Every structure is written in structure tokens, then in C-alpha cells.
Amino acid sequence: MSGLSDGERDVLENRLIAHGCEVLAIEQDGIARLASGLGAEFARAARTIIETKGRLVVCGVGKSGIVARKIAATFASTGTPAFFLHSSEAVHGDLGTVEGGDVVLAVSKSGEGQELLAMIPVFRDIGVPLIAITGSVASTLAERADLVLDASVEKEACPMDLVPTASTTVALALGDALAMVVMREKDIDANRFAVFHPGGALGRRLLLRVRDAMHTGAELPVVRDGALMHEAIVEIVNKRLGMTTIVDDTGRLVGIISDGDLKRILMDRSDVLEVPVEEVMIRTPKTIAEDVLLAEALERMETATPSPITSLIILNDDGSPKGVIHIHDCLKAVR
Q: Rounded distance, CA 17 to CA 8, Å?
């Protein structure tokens, strides 16, 4: 584009944008047609997967194989034991990984792939149900499958109507729909989902709880309600959490003073160091249970009213402070 004039560059960019929008519109239409035609066969396929005592084996080759691999990964990560079986490798020995009690989900645009068709007699001998996702409900695969999910499209987004584009999008969306309804029926909640994602940011967001990051013991800022503000300031500075809890003679939490409170007090009073903490403390500090997910703790702090806050207090059963969780601890852990 370096040799183009400004006008020529604008024309080219507009043409590229228009072509991109055309591709997305074709693929959007394919998914809309899929949704409008979803029926009893889809429900039966989902029920077959839910009820299986074995694993879901997802087969395909070429572009369909790539889609099949993703579908298998989605099922495996949402509570359904599943794996991808490449059709070409299957007919050269890997069919031995399929066992009685499994369910096979075959993905094929044409439904006529020879490797895939060659596996069907083996599936029959083993006695495993065969679900087909295919772009041709009149194909050999569709004829021999136990259940058929129609993933046909009116046309590909390719200008020659050849490159798998809309068809792979529709097949992938259909696989996602199956996986999500199965996940919902199996009642996979955030806690169970986290078991399958222990690593990385997603795992941290789903697994880590307030107790895993809160400050306790010597790190916990505490002053008595009879103390003066200069003691509270020393505690805030030394514990470096931007706040301190205030407790009564029994150790029960009665208030909190934060950096923000201190700034407001400094603007109102010149004798701030000699002010008793109970005169200026916030008497309704925000608390949270230690078993709450860190992601939820972060959301509570960010959405607190009338304005966001930076810390939450964790209490013992007797009402005494057990720990403090700071917004920076949450951000470090879940983002």
C-alpha cells in the first residue's frame, strides 16, 4: 500500500472492510439457520452423551478434524471425558482406543471421507453409538450414523464457494451447543469447572479464595478503640495495607480507618494526631467470608457503594478480625 495515493488507499481499505463484513454475514447466516432448525435429534444426541458411562470420541480429518479436536477439548474441559481421534490414524491402529461404552461424534462436511467410513464397521462391532455432524444429510455417513446433526450451509464465505469457512463455523458452533447443554445438565458449576483448569489465570480465578491471599497474624493491622490517631497512623504505615482495624477491649471489630479516611480528617482537623480513633473511624466496615473466591472479593471492592474500597475484613466467629484482604492481593492473583 506504500505506493498508493490517499484516495486509492481509502478505496482499498473500504473494499477490504466490505469483504470482511460479507464473510461475517455469511457465517452469521449459517449459525442463524442452524439455530432455527435445531430439533429432537439434537436433544437425543445430547442425551446420549450425558448418559454414556464411557468417553466421548470425536473424529474428523482435515478442516473437520481441526473442528473435531476443538470440540473434544471443550467437552473434556467441561466435565465430559473426551478425546480427539484422527480418522487417518484411527484406521492404522488407533481404533484400539475406542471401547465399549464410549460414544463417537464424527465431524465431516461431505460425509464421504473414506477413513471415517472405514471406521463405522468397527464402531458397530464394538457397539458404540455414532453421532454425525455433517454438511450433507444425504451422505453415507449420515445414512449409517445413529443420530445426524445437520451442519449444512447455503454457501461458503469463500468467493469461490470452496474453502471451508461457513461450514466449519457452523460445525464448531454445533459442537459448542452440544458441550454447553451437556455441561448444564451435568450441573457443572464454577467449583467443578475449576478442577479441570488448575493452571494459569483461569485456574487462579476459579480456585483461589480469600483465605489463600489474606493477611493474618503479625501482618494484620489492629489498634484498640481507646487509642489516638497517631497510633493508628503508625499501624497503617507499618502494616502497609492502607488501613487498620479498630477493636474493643474484647478484641471484637468495631471499626476501620483507611488512608482515605485519614485524608478527610486532615482536611477537617488540625489536631489529628491527638484525636481518639473512635471519633473518626468508620463503624460499619465491609467484611467477607474467607471461603469466598478472590474474583468475587475483587468484584465486591470494585462495585462497593457509595464508592469503591480497597480492603475487606475477615472475621473469626467471635467477631474479632482474622484477616484483611487488599484489592492489590486480588489483582495480583486473578489477573
A: 14
Band the pLDDT of 170: cuts 50, 70, 90: very high
Nearest CA to 149 among 165, 167, 163? Answer: 167
Crossing angle of helices 166-185/40-51, nearest 10°?
50
Query: Which cell goes with 255?
Result: 471499626
Residues in the chain: 335
DSSP code of residue 152: -
2, pLDDT greater than 80: no
Going by DSSP bridges, is the β-strand pair 147-150/82-86 parallel, antiparallel, or unpaired? unpaired
Question: How far is Cα 312 from Cα 310, in angstroms, rounded to an integer?
Answer: 7
Is residue 135 classed as helix, strand or coil in its secondary structure? Answer: coil
- Choose among 122, 68, 69: nearest CA to 94: 122
Distance from C-alpha of 250 to C-alpha of 71, rounded to nearest angstrom: 58
Per-residue pLDDT tens over the stretch 321-332 = 999 999 888 887
Is the model's pLDDT at 191 over the cut of 70?
no
- Phi first, then psi, for residue 257 (nearest 5°) are -130, 125
- C-alpha cell belonging to residue 27: 457465517
Cis ω before 164 (30° cut-off from 0): no
Q: Which three cell numbers stand for residue 16?
A: 477490504
Q: E strands along the chain, which residues?
A: 56-60, 82-86, 103-108, 130-134, 147-150, 222-224, 243-247, 253-258, 311-315, 321-326
* Cα torsion angle, 249, 253, 258, 260, sign: negative
Which residues fall within 8 angstroms of residue 215, CB to CB, at 6 or more apart?
Answer: 239, 241, 323, 324, 325, 326, 329
pLDDT of 135 strictly over 90: yes
Half-sphere exposure at residue 24, Cβ-oriented, CA atoms within 13 angstroms: 6
Question: Do the Cβ atoms of 256 and 285 come closer than 8 Å?
Answer: yes
Distance between CA atoms of residues 181 and 47, nearest Å: 9
Gap between the Cα atoms of 117 and 59, Å rounded: 11
